[in-house]
Backbone:
């Protein structure tokens, strides 16, 4: 093992000089960065050695992750090629996609949660205790004379000055506390709108990225999300793997123009023509839309290199530093960081391996030995509270150590998602579902392949004495069609065919030898997937399948809870970033003129308001169960005094159709539709014939047409119709022509 201060030399490196075969790469006309000081070069060398040492330690884990990815893709036999004809029934991929569909079905619902506080200094929050103070503030009433009895009615005495002062203090305290709550609730609503907007404005749809993250976690055992904040003309290293944003053409044009001015790019170079095309496109579209807001990056599972001292992956407990690896070309490094590393860096492949190492292992002609990418490491050091960027083989910092771009409560910008957590201090990366079901999948394929081979071996075969039949006779017997008369020159006339051809015995196919029910039984016990979930049944009873499904849903519910916790942690951090980084003008543009966005300190943001993910909102909700529960609960709520009708309407609408906006449907001054329908109408006739004179249900006593009669234009049946009223209009709109 190497010490942290020792930098191991990779094959092809000599005396710290970068590049394959130890030769420094020639300069390309772009001004080079100044030579680093001796202390800076030593620090860069130390950090590079630590990162490479940790990467070597986690290499078996990363190798297992990549093997699981290949296995889920369908490479399930040793040395399997695309043309391989061995039996593969990819149950693993079906189980992975099915679990993804269960765990993440829609975008999560974020709700702003105000921290519970005691907002009132004097008032205890009880309405009963507030009533005497309200009475004390009422003006005194003088004595009055009852006009009917002539008795004197005494008035109310003036309030006690001390009581009046106390009442003013209490009511002022109530008003101030309510104002604070209203402001906090309005700010929370603004935060919900802004966060929902940012989720919908990602370059790659957030739902697509999150479903891929869940699939990655099921396949490799761990998934990461990195939170960032994109400002105007900034470009991040993660943008290389995303859809090209508006800043990339400008950066690329700037880099090509600089190299062209320095003489490293000639006029005949293809990049010169590329610069002309970009200039023409920029002139045709002078207005460029730039973006400011949250940026979610979903790095591969093998791109994060964690300090070996880490004891728990979630939260990086025990880790001093964490580095994220990017594989970028020299041009990408110039465009993103403005640093030319072409003169001194270690070439790597897209897989993150040193190109010189692959050359020695596989030979110069192998594709794995060909690579010309820079290994860029974005490193967060928690011990010093700094963030820096390095390049493997480059003697100085790409970005020197400084405070992280985002001030997060837990320092790390990465959030970890795992489903199969296990307690093992020596192996902090949990196993994946694919790795757990590998044995059952291999056994299933093996049994089916052996059955196929047995069926081939059991095909009818016949034997003849050697030399009795010539090759033409054998061909005629083998290729003959049905009901064909075959002439055999090797048979003596009068000889029985049974004496010439003898049936070769074979081993009969025993289905019990190749049964696969045990594979599905083990699959259910290991990863919670039974055969019925994959589209087939193994003869189990309905009760057994129901019990197994209940057990599976319990395990899936635990994973949904893990996912909700992950999304909640990410939403909390995102809310802090938005409150600290986004300007009030941008918030007003997104949320509208009524947005509330105060300027708070980092401590106030962390203490006052956070975003939580509504439980179960990322998975498939059981809408039938929610509606059934609401049907049971609504009658009880309607009998409780003080329940707000609008709140009750919102709860009902939310369970039936969350696209309805109750603010457009509810008017506080109007009575219910039932009350409108039951309003007493002016009488139009005798009480015996006028339904309006027969009580609230009189409309139901109106004269009905006889069965089978027509209510069309030619009908002669006369009925007493009530006058047109708002209630009757509503009833008619609901399909009741009789009101």
Residues:
């Amino acid at each position: 093992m190497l010490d942290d201060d020792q930098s191991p030399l990779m094959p092809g490196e000599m005396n710290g000089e970068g590049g394959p075969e130890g030769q420094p790469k020639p300069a390309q006309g772009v001004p080079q960065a100044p030579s680093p000081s001796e202390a800076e070069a030593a620090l860069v060398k130390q950090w590079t050695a630590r990162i490479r040492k940790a990467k070597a330690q986690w290499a078996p884990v990363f190798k297992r992750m990549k093997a699981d990815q290949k296995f889920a893709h369908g490479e399930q036999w040793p040395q399997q090629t695309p043309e391989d004809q061995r039996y593969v029934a990819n149950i693993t991929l079906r189980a992975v996609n099915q679990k993804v569909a269960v765990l993440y079905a829609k975008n999560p619902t974020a709700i702003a949660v105000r921290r519970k506080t005691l907002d009132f200094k004097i008032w205890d929050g009880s309405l009963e205790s507030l009533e005497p103070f309200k009475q004390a503030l009422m003006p005194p009433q003088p004595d009055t004379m009852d006009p009917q009895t002539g008795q004197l009615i005494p008035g109310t005495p003036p309030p006690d000055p001390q009581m009046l002062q106390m009442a003013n203090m209490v009511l002022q305290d109530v008003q101030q506390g309510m104002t604070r709550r209203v402001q906090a609730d309005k700010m929370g609503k603004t935060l919900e709108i802004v966060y929902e907007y940012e989720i919908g404005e990602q370059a790659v749809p957030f739902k697509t990225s999150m479903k891929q993250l869940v699939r990655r976690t099921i396949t490799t055992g761990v998934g990461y999300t990195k939170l960032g904040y994109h400002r105007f003309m900034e470009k991040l290293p993660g943008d290389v793997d995303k859809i090209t944003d508006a800043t990339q053409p400008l950066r690329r044009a700037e880099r090509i123009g600089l190299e062209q001015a320095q003489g490293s790019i000639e006029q005949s170079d293809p990049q010169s023509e590329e610069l002309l095309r970009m200039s023409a496109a920029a002139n045709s579209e002078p207005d460029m839309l730039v973006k400011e807001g949250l940026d979610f990056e979903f790095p591969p599972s093998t791109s994060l290199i964690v300090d070996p001292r880490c004891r728990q992956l979630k939260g990086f407990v025990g880790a001093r530093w964490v580095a994220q690896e990017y594989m970028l070309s020299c041009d990408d490094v110039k465009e993103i960081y403005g640093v030319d590393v072409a003169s001194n860096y270690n070439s790597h492949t897209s897989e993150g391996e040193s190109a010189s190492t692959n050359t020695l292992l596989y030979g110069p002609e192998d594709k794995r030995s060909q690579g010309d990418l820079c290994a860029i490491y974005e490193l967060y050091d928690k011990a010093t509270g700094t963030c820096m960027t390095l390049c493997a083989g480059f003697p100085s910092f790409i970005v020197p150590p400084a405070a992280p771009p985002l001030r997060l409560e837990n320092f790390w910008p990465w959030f970890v998602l795992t489903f199969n957590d296990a307690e093992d201090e020596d192996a902090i990366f949990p196993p994946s579902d694919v790795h757990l079901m590998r044995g059952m999948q291999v056994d299933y394929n093996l049994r089916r392949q052996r059955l196929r081979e047995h069926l081939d071996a059991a095909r009818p075969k016949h034997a003849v004495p050697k030399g009795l039949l010539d090759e033409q006779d054998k061909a005629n017997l083998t290729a003959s069609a049905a009901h064909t008369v075959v002439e055999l020159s090797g048979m003596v006339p009068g000889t029985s065919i049974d004496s010439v051809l003898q049936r070769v015995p074979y081993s009969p196919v025993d289905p019990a030898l190749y049964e696969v029910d045990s594979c599905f039984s083990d699959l259910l016990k290991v990863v919670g997937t039974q055969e019925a979930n994959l589209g087939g049944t193994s003869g189990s009873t309905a009760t057994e399948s129901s019990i197994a499904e209940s057990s599976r849903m319990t395990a899936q519910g635990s994973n949904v809870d893990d996912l909700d916790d992950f999304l909640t942690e990410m939403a909390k951090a995102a809310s802090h970033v938005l409150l600290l980084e986004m300007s009030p003008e941008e918030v007003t543009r997104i949320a509208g003129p009524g947005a509330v966005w105060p300027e708070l300190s980092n401590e106030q943001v962390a203490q006052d308001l956070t975003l939580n993910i509504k439980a179960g909102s990322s998975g498939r909700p059981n809408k039938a169960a929610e509606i059934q529960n609401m049907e049971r609960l609504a009658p009880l709520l309607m009998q409780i005094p003080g329940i707000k009708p609008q709140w009750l309407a919102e709860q009902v609408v939310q369970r039936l159709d969350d696209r309805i906006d109750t603010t457009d449907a509810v008017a506080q001054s109007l009575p219910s539709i039932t009350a409108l329908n039951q309003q007493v109408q002016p009488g139009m006739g005798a009480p015996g014939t006028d339904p309006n004179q027969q009580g609230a249900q009189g409309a139901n006593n109106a004269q009905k047409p006889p069965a089978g009669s027509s209510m069309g234009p030619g009908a002669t049946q006369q009925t007493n119709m009530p006058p047109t009223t708002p209630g009757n209009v509503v009833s008619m709109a609901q399909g009741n022509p009789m009101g």
About this structure: The chain has a mean pLDDT of 75. The longest helix spans residues 161-200. The two ends are 89 Å apart (CA to CA). The chain is about 40% helix and 10% strand.
